[in-house]
């Protein structure tokens, strides 16, 4: 059986997802595409198997050639497409964030519960990244005791021209919010953002340091550095009572050649998380074929990460520690 996938938004991530679905995932093909800018759709058409090009996202979702939808358009356009997919009972993989608006996320949660079926997966792909999965497995299976501290690094080569301070929280840190909850199986209850004031060449604050407290007592620090220059680098170190689990900084081999010990970094996030995107998309397709709930982030997880991001922005703007009340998860999402 093959799942026919329609993709909305064919920019950097949409083109990558189209390529992954078409050539790296089994039992799936891209049958339908839509981008507000027709050139974006046309530029990838030759890499696909004669897909339909639609005139709107809603038209694509309603096409009888589409079994499942990927929403990869800009953040503020996601929810309309997700709600239409739920209405038609089509599974939808929505890139993160589900929405920056907690109210809009709640609209999705309400619609999904009304239909009575979990149809939404949010693209927090780190849950499918082998390095994070290995860390979680080691934490759960080795005799390391309870997690005390998690040190996270989130570095980009350089920020795009449109970057602003809150994007460090809403676009970057939001990945850590999701992975902390998943890895440590706890909720985030407090956040503080410390601003660096050294760099004068930027018109936004960079780097920032988030200090996060979890309901289980673990403390997390996250460096978000949008101008690390040397490469894209995401990693973590989990300090437990009886041992520490250190994530390798790269998915590539380390080289010991010519009197040097080295490994290479990608220019952006895609090489670092290539396995994660592929595994995520395959798990999504498998869950559709098997009629099971995918183990990826749910609409509830999407809402929680945006809720924490709001508190992070408040902590940044008001320069104070902000408490985050724990929301009660409906059984529907257990
Ligand atoms: N999971 C991750 O690691 C990750 C990484 C990068 C981006 N993202 C998310 O993926 C999404 C896309 O990001 P990107 O980097 O590919 O952006 P992009 O700007 O490269 O591409 C967006 C595309 O959407 C099109 N578009 C604009 N409005 C549209 C609409 N209303 N309907 C259909 N198409 C529309 C644009 O023409 C463009 O081709 C964003 O939500 C972003 O936050 C996730």
Largest sheet: 7 strands, mixed
Q: What is the molecular shape?
A: globular
Summed up, the domain count is 2
- On the 0 to 100 scale, the average pLDDT is 96
Task: Please tell me about this protein's structure.
The protein is an alpha/beta fold and 334 residues long. It is built from ten helices and 15 strands. It has helices at 12-24, 38-42, 57-62, 78-87, 102-115, 130-141, 165-184, 269-272, 274-289, 299-318; strands at residues 3-8, 28-34, 52-53, 68-71, 92-94, 120-122, 147-155, 188-195, 208-214, 219-225, 233-240, 244-246, 255-257, 260-262, 322-323. Strands 12-11-7-10-9-8-15 form a seven-stranded mixed β-sheet, covered by helices on one side. Strands 3-2-1-4-5-6 form a six-stranded parallel β-sheet, sandwiched between helices. Strands 13-14 form a two-stranded antiparallel ribbon. Helix 1 (12-24) packs across helix 9 (274-289), helix 4 runs parallel beside helix 5 (102-115) and helix 7 (165-184) crosses helix 10. It starts with a strand and ends in an 11-residue tail after the last strand. Bound molecules: nicotinamide-adenine-dinucleotide. Residues 8-14, 34-37, 40, 57, 72-75, 77, 95-96, 123, 125, 269 line the site of nicotinamide-adenine-dinucleotide (NAD).
Write the layout of secondary structure elements.
Elements: E1 3-8, H1 12-24, E2 28-34, H2 38-42, E3 52-53, H3 57-62, E4 68-71, H4 78-87, E5 92-94, H5 102-115, E6 120-122, H6 130-141, E7 147-155, H7 165-184, E8 188-195, E9 208-214, E10 219-225, E11 233-240, E12 244-246, E13 255-257, E14 260-262, H8 269-272, H9 274-289, H10 299-318, E15 322-323
Parallel strand pairs: 1-2, 1-4, 2-3, 4-5, 5-6, 7-10
Antiparallel strand pairs: 7-11, 8-9, 8-15, 9-10, 11-12, 13-14
Helix pairs in contact: 1-9, 4-5, 5-10, 7-10
Nicotinamide-adenine-dinucleotide binds at residues 8-14, 34-37, 40, 57, 72-75, 77, 95-96, 123, 125, 269.
